[in-house]
């Protein structure tokens, strides 16, 4: 059984907590793309954890976690992240964590380049998380990246590294007029932060294929959402990897296998971190009220998230791109304090009403068209069954379900593991 859990919107939909909830049924949890620009929050009986690189299954005993070849890994960050978990009493070892030899290492100069470029762009910046993600994916496709498996052979590593450093310094000094890096310091870095992972590095594709063959249940955890996918998202305000579920078998190392189930995580309202068009955005007091209610500050960066109404054209597109079989609608409890709730059901583009999500450059000219629903004004955070929900809350769910042509199977009403409701079809 191969299941993907992915984001329908702009990210931060609550994927981490849904993976934590659903991973009890799974043997293996896999991250297949992205790096430590992710921020997945999990709150359970052991505390509150923010995971940037590690799959959310790391918090479950008996679950094997895999970091796939599609990932870009900042090894210093990974070491620190593991350190935080170990300090909280969570065991991380080669038994429950396997890292792909084919995954690439996000280097200090990639982080540096990310910062330098955002600085150069000034008011035209992309709103990068400045974790080096775009530069390292760029290097990967230029074939100038170092893969984790290369750490085993220091001699050939040093040779390749020297060539890469020479090339990278042309950009660092020539384009940005910054201080060059040296091969020796980068080699030291790789040894200091990389060698601890040698026992973890393996052929994760082989491991996963065998696990699938033996009937193990495998869960793929996406980072970000459909609208941040490099091909299908709001380019160039996307991430630099494929966030869609279809990429999961590739980024995990088992392109020979197909997904059995895709669960889309969709937020009951909209949030977006960084720059780019965001049609149903709220501003001023209205935005602040929703941001406060939802605690919408970035898990990875602490930045206030942009907030807005639920966006039907964007979400319906997200559901289609993910191929989501079922949906978990998250953070419904956040809307409890509003008298009325807007839903953006269509856009106005150059005087015409459109219902399909448009091409990125048209999106910037779109204006939201809202339908206003009645709020429920009741605390729903202790509801555990559909019957316990106020009529208006159920009506809101059904409205969204119909408008997005999806099947909402789960509704979450709080951040903790048990705060959710399962709906009948
Ligand atoms: P991810 O990146 O998709 O894993 O999501 P984040 O962890 O970045 O953001 C989701 C935030 O909402 C986290 O702070 C969660 O603890 C919180 N959260 C998740 N589900 C719920 C919910 O149903 N209700 C409330 N109030 N908070 C939730
Ligand atoms: Mg997040």
Question: How would you characterize the overall build of this protein?
Answer:
The chain is an alpha/beta fold and 425 residues long. It has 3 domains: 2-92 and 202-263, Adenylosuccinate Synthetase, subunit A, domain 1 (Adenylosuccinate Synthetase, Chain A, domain 1); 104-196, Adenylosuccinate Synthetase, subunit A, domain 2 (Orthogonal Bundle); 266-422, Adenylosuccinate Synthetase, Chain A, domain 3, CATH 3.90.170. It has helices at 15-22, 75-87, 108-121, 133-141, 154-175, 183-194, 204-213, 248-252, 284-294, 312-322, 360-363, 391-404; strands at 2-7, 28-31, 40-44, 47-51, 64-67, 72-73, 97-100, 104-105, 201-202, 218-225, 261-267, 270-272, 306-308, 310-311, 326-330, 340-349, 352-354, 367-374, 408-412, 420-422. The strands form 5 sheets. A 10-stranded mixed beta sheet has the order 9-7-5-2-10-1-11-15-19-20, with helices on both faces. Strands 14, 16, 17 and 18 form a 4-stranded mixed beta sheet that branches. A two-stranded antiparallel ribbon has the order 3-4. Strand 3 (40-44) and strand 4 (47-51) form a beta hairpin. Bound molecules: guanosine-5'-diphosphate (GDP) and magnesium ion (MG).
């Amino acid at each position: 059984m191969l299941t993907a859990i992915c984001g329908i919107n702009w990210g931060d939909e609550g994927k981490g907590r849904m993976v934590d909830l659903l991973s009890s049924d799974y043997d293996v949890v896999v991250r297949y793309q992205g790096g430590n620009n992710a921020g997945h929050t999990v709150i359970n009986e052991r505390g509150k954890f923010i995971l940037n690189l590690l799959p959310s299954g790391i918090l479950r005993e008996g679950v094997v976690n895999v970091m796939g070849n599609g990932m870009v890994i900042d090894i210093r960050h990974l070491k620190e992240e593991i350190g935080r978990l170990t300090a909280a009493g969570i065991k991380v070892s080669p038994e429950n964590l396997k890292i792909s030899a084919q995954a690439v290492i996000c280097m200090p100069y990639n982080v540096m380049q990310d910062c330098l470029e955002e600085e150069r762009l000034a008011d035209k910046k992309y709103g990068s998380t400045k974790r080096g993600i775009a530069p390292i994916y760029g290097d990967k496709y230029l074939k100038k990246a170092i893969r984790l498996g290369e750490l085993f052979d220091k001699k050939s590593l040093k040779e390749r590294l020297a060539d890469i450093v020479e090339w990278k310094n042309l950009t660092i000094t020539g384009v940005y007029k910054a201080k060059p890096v040296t091969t020796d310091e980068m080699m030291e870095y790789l040894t200091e932060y990389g060698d601890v992972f040698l026992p973890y590095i393996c052929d994760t594709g082989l491991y996963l294929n065998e696990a699938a063959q033996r009937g193990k249940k495998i869960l793929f955890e996406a980072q970000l959402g459909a609208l941040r996918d490099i091909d299908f998202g709001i380019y160039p305000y996307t991430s630099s990897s494929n966030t869609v579920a279809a990429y999961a078998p590739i980024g995990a190392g088992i392109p020979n296998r197909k997904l059995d189930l895709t669960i889309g995580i969709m937020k009951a309202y909209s949030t977006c971190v960084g720059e780019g068009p965001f049609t149903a955005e709220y501003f001023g007091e209205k935005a602040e009220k929703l941001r406060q209610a939802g605690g919408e500050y970035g898990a990875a960066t602490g930045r206030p998230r942009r907030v807005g109404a639920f966006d039907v054209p964007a979400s319906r597109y997200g559901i289609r791109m993910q191929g989501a079989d079922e949906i978990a609608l998250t953070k419904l409890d956040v809307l409890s304090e509003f008298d009325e709730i807007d839903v953006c059901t269509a856009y106005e583009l150059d005087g015409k009403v459109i219902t399909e999500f448009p091409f990125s450059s048209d999106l910037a000219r779109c204006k939201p068209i809202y339908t206003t629903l009645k709020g429920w004004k009741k605390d729903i955070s202790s509801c555990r069954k559909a019957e316990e929900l106020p009529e208006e809350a159920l009506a809101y769910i059904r409205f969204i379900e119909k408008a997005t042509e999806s099947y909402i199977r789960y509704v979450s009403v709080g951040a903790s593991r048990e705060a959710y409701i399962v709906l009948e079809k």
